[in-house]
Amino acid sequence: MTRPFVIAVDGPAASGKGTIASRLASHYGLPFLDTGLLYRAVGLDVLTGGGDLGDPVAAEAAARALDAARVAEDAALTTGEAGEAASRVAGHPGVRAALLDLQQAFARQPAGAVLDGRDIGTVIAPGAPAKLFVTATPETRARRRWLQLSGRGDTITYEAMLADIQRRDERDAGRGSAPMVQADDAVLLDTTDMDIESAFDAARRIVEAARVRHGFLA
């Protein structure tokens, strides 16, 4: 097989897309990139440098200086603060442009790759053979993220988490540059009433159907 098999996994925060994408990568033996970590790293770099997340010049500068090799091992990127920072800097067109080449280069690996984010199937890898849009109700996603952060010792109420999820959804879907939308050819996977095993099995079946449809046979 000479064509890369790319799996694009998009969706809102706490929908389960990251866990699903990671497990798909492991299942198919493909490299995995959580593109949200790139935006989280940019946001934290702006804050660490004393900058303003609303400043497009500062945010783009941070994106262009980003060392992508560090993001997978930086525990600070999993905090709620990092998630909020990522959502804010992701709205700057210059930031998205600065990270575009990095993400597309990752998707061009010979065997293929799995990428998850907000605009993988629409902007980063629009030609990906397999596309999923993973979602769940805001209430379910807020509860998941609240339990996750509370388990780490973060002090946040469920109500505050729900408000944060709703605010980020509105920002991600409403931004002018690469808004979060379901690609026309992406398969919708609603994980509201699923545990992770059920969600992964459903995702795997979607990918298997795409493999057959596009001639990627085992």
Automatic annotation (TrEMBL):
Keywords: ATP-binding, Cytoplasm, Kinase, Nucleotide-binding, Transferase. It is an enzyme of class 2 (transferase). GO terms for molecular function: ATP binding; CMP kinase activity; dCMP kinase activity. One of its GO terms (biological process) is pyrimidine nucleotide metabolic process. CDD domains: CMPK (cd02020). The keyword Kinase applies. GO terms for cellular component: cytoplasm. ATP binds at G11, P12, A13, A14, S15, G16, K17, G18, T19. Residues 7-202 form the Cytidylate kinase domain. It catalyses: dCMP + ATP = dCDP + ADP; CMP + ATP = CDP + ADP. It is found in: Cytoplasm. Pfam families: Cytidylate_kin. SUPFAM superfamilies: P-loop containing nucleoside triphosphate hydrolases. It comes from the Bacteria. HAMAP family: Cytidyl_kinase_type1. Belongs to the cytidylate kinase family. Type 1 subfamily. This is Cytidylate kinase. The lineage of its organism: Bacteria, Pseudomonadati, Pseudomonadota, Alphaproteobacteria, Caulobacterales.
